[in-house]
Amino acid sequence: MKPIYFDNNATTMVAPEVTEAMIPFFKEYWGNPSSMHTFGGQVAKYVDEGRQKVADMLNCHPQEIIFTSCATESDNTAIWSALQTQPTKRHIITTAVEHPAILQTCAFWERQGYRVTRLGVDNKGRLNLDEYRDALDDDTAIVSIMWANNEVGNIYPIKKMAEMARERGILFHTDAVQAAGKIPLDLADVPVDMLSISGHKLHAPKGIGLLFVRKGVLFRPFMRGGHQEKGRRAGTENVPYIVGLGVACQLAKDSMHDELTRVAALRDRLEKGIVSQIPDTLVNGDTENRVPNTTNISFRNIEGEAILLMLNQYNICASSGSACTSGSLEPSHVLHAMGVPFKYAHSSTRLSLSRYNTQEEVDFAISKFPEIIATLRSSLPSRTRLPLP
Questions:
Q1: What domain range is 49 assigned to?
Q2: 324 catalytic, yes or no?
Q3: Same domain, 153 and 199
């Protein structure tokens, strides 16, 4: 049975068009784009074409794109560069609901003596702009806030927050991994200084990412040892994956209307179909302002891992919180920051769709969820099934 894949915030299927575009660069055009000879040098134009396609999706200049291995590298590079170019500034602002790529990096710098402000959120995961404004000060080197949350899908007011930082002369970085390909990203309109994207979250392969660095922003490389990417990121260019990322960005741009309409409708159908049939459920996050593919639902008194195991019996792929922290038995740090009660937070199930999902898959999952939750609740001690006071 073909898997029903509702875990696209963890990784996505490589689009067939992407795979097809990459194959020649494994078989025919495998030269080093930095070589002086024609065989290698001819490959450089395909790197440029990939860079242009990425820039077209983001509405920026292609030379503002630096190719990396992944968004985690891009995030680390952004913060590193901001601190190295501003050695007298010792303050970083982020949020309590960031991806570990940012939270753990900020924790590292905190151990080096930097001051880190982690903005809180309300019970729907929304930020308070007054709290943010008060946190900005003359010692702030960089603000790093995700464009969209990987667990609950919330979209944050990045344009407004970047504008507020710019008014104070403070660098602003956003991890846009969960926003890219799902909502329009117009960097001619949104004044972020740096932005991270990971290829495998928008139907490109794992092992390729990018960092946007706006023209005029002082920059120091994190990866050293070569002249590649105009001296901004050392290491031989991963040509097949750069080509693939370019095609994936082109497809994402062309599919944006489908993402915002059909995929959103499928997500809503899945969410309503589950919640309407099962009592004691909670939809986590801001349902009025989220990416179109994501829902995060909690079922009182049930372990999220048990739900995933039973879904897996039907070949339904989902996740409990972030795939990057799935080995932890602790409730999601995102739901904890939102104040979700423990009896709900432990059972969070994230369902994240893509343009490759179908209504038939959604309806099959809807038909199985009540049975799964009923089975798990029937195995609970009777006292845990009593209504909460």
A1: 16-254
A2: yes
A3: yes
